[in-house]
Design a protein that fits this description.
There is one protein chain. This protein is mainly β. It has no helices and 10 strands. Strand 7 and strand 8 form a beta hairpin. It is globular, with a radius of gyration of 13 Å. It starts with a strand and ends with a strand.
């Protein structure tokens, strides 16, 4: 059974930083691209970032480029998302998911994901 467990969210002021983690189990982690997505209240699921299985390729949606950094530690079966220079528009529930989900029509109910971690950016 695939399990994903996100953590690291919280309340932060604009301009602040957070580091999200996602611990994975139940599949061959180092053979799987991983992605982060987010869902703001009342909005659809937005792809945020993807990292290739060995971490050699990373991709970001335009709104987070130069602010967010995705990374992974295959020895720990963990994928990270470093969030810097946070904006109120980044407020959302963040989820990790398996595979490269760029370009997909995402539905939170049908995705392989954990329980998510809430990021709230507010002064």
């Amino acid at each position: 059974e695939i399990q994903l467990k996100e953590s690291g969210g919280g309340l932060v002021q604009p301009g602040g930083s957070l580091r999200l983690s996602c611990v994975a189990s139940g599949f061959t982690f180092d053979s799987t691209d991983m992605s982060w997505v987010r869902q703001a209240p009342g909005k659809g699921v937005e792809w945020v970032s993807t990292i290739s299985q060995w971490g050699t390729r990373t991709y970001y949606t335009d709104s987070v480029k130069e602010r967010f950094t995705i990374s992974r530690d295959n020895d720990k079966n963990t994928v990270y998302l470093q969030l810097n220079s946070l904006k109120t528009a980044d407020t959302a529930m963040y989820y990790c998911t398996t595979h490269d989900v760029r370009g997909f029509d995402l539905n939170i109910e049908h995705m392989t994901r954990g329980q998510g971690t809430q990021v709230t950016v507010s002064s």
